[in-house]
Each structure stands twice: as structure tokens, then as C-alpha cells.
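The records we work with from here on pair a chain with its fold. A complete example follows; check for yourself that the lines match position by position.
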Amino acid sequence: MESRGKGLTLRVFMVAALLALTLALMITAPAQAQARSVEELLAIACGDGGPPEFIAEIRAAAALALADLLPISGFELARLEKIALGPTPECRGAAIPALVEAYLALDPEGAGSVTALLASVERAHTPELALARAIAAIVRIQQTLLVVGLPPEEELVEAITAVLSGSEGTLLGFTVDGSSPIIREAVGRVVQEVFFSLARVIYGEAVCQVFEDLAVNAPTHEFRATAARVFVTAGCVPYDVETLTGLVTVGGSEELRDAAVGPLSEVLAMEPIADPDLMALALDSTTTRQHRLAAGQALGLRWMMAVSVDPETGNPSVDSLDLIKFAAEHTITHPELAIAVVAPLAAFFLF
């Protein structure tokens, strides 16, 4: 069960993480880019087109754009659920943000929606559809808690800890079963900020050490991943190359190393490091996968604002580098370098 949850995290939330990075730096539209329709992007993300759509990074770029567009597409719930049943993980994952909004809109007052959504998680035919339902249920619980008032800090931290550890916890009177990795993933994603705030009240200045320890030693992957994200993003570590490089290379758990990838890629993108040097780092087999991945994503953030259309091939390119050909060349042998095309292609598709 734990391995299934870990695979889901890596597949589905690559889209969400890259979306946050892309939109954070997207100040102006890339020159000569061509916006794609939602249907065109679905054809790419779901692998319904020609050979380029068989490249995972190109599908991921289309999914990245779709995650932004589907919530405003006007698609009905049935159409969104059909997308979440699609043939590729990129296709299915792209539907999650829109599905969460759609499920919450079904019952704006929240009466009965939590019970129905939690009950429907196990009946979902794909992990992505299950995750969307679980996230919507936990979001509704959190929204209600913020309205009616939070219980004592110790009580709520104990309940969240129980669920993330794989046991049952009671949130707002609802029994949330943490034996499901889908439920643990949803709880970790939705409540991590509240979890840290409550824990800080309890542990004071020791809270960062507590979350670092949990990122290494917590009993489930989802608990370790939640603690790692909190530790890296909540002000516990400085955002500099040396510190973040240390985390992605010698961090005490896979989850801690994964959590530092995004922040390090943002920092590296702004450093005076030449593109060829970042490429070399993304290819360096002597370092960790996370270190290579951060270098590849840093390249993508740089290239995002420089993408244009090659006048001869019509393909998106950066400084005469054909992004489609680049992805095709590296997708199998050097995926950490190939990921550099995702952010610029997503910007290309959106604008």
C-alpha cells in the first residue's frame, strides 16, 4: 500500500509543483507562442495525437497547462471524471484541480458532502479520481473547522498525526481512515500549513526539529513527505544553494530530498550558472536524482520566458534548441534533463 501512495505522489503532483513554479515566474508571454485549446491539450496529454505525444515530458507540459485551464473550461463533472479515467497519468492528473472545485460546488454548504466523498474514494476507478474526491472531502472539513472554530491544538495535531500514520482520526466528527494512502496524501496536502501552525504552538522553537525528524522517521511515506514539505517551505531552512544542495544530496530520507528539489531549482535558476553547466549537472550520474532534477527544472524556469517558434520547423525552441527534439533525445536516458522542456512548453501552450 505504501509504495502505491509513493508512486501516486510522484506522478500526480509533478503537475501541481511545476504549475506553481511556472505561474510564479510567468510575467510576460513568450514571444511568438501559440495558445492551444483545451481540446488540443487534452489530445496531447492523453496521448491521442502523433509521435510527440508519446514523449512523457510533452504530455506533462500539456497537463501543466490543462491544470490551469480545466477549472475555467466550463466542463461538467461527468466530463472531468472521464478525463480522470484517461489513458495516461498526465491526462488523469491534469483533471484533479478542476475536479476538486467541481465536487465542492456540488454542495456549497457542505451538508453531507464529506461523508459522500469519503465513501466514494474507494470506489474510484483510478488513483487520480480517488485523490480528487479525497482532497475535496478534506478541504470541506478544513473549511468547516475554520468557521466553527478549531479544537484544542493537541487534539487536532493528535488526529492529523493518527491519520498520516495510517490509523483512524476524528476530524469535525468525521472518522478519517488513514489506512488508505490516498486519504493520507489528501490530508497531508490540504492540512500541512495548519498542521505546522498548530505544532508550533505546542513545540515552540523546537518545531523545526520535530518536523525534520518526522521527515526522516515518520511511519508512512505520506507522513514523511508532508513533514518534509513543511520543514523545507515553512522557514526552517535558508533558501541558498549550499543549504538546499545539502538537502537534495544528503537529506536523511527520500522525501526530504524530494521536498528540496523545487526550492533549489528556483534558486539555481537565478544563480550566475551557465546553461551548459546546469545541463552537465542534470546529467551527472555521481550525484542524486533529486540534484539532477533540480538542475533540469532550473533550466526549464530559465527557458520559459525565452521560448519561441522555429521558423523552419514550427516547433517551439529556445536559442535554436528544438524543445521537441530535445525531449525525444533525452526522455528515456536522461529524464532529469528532459524535464527542462516542461515549463517552457507549458508556457508555449498557454500563450
In short: Residues 1-34 have pLDDT under 50 and may be disordered.
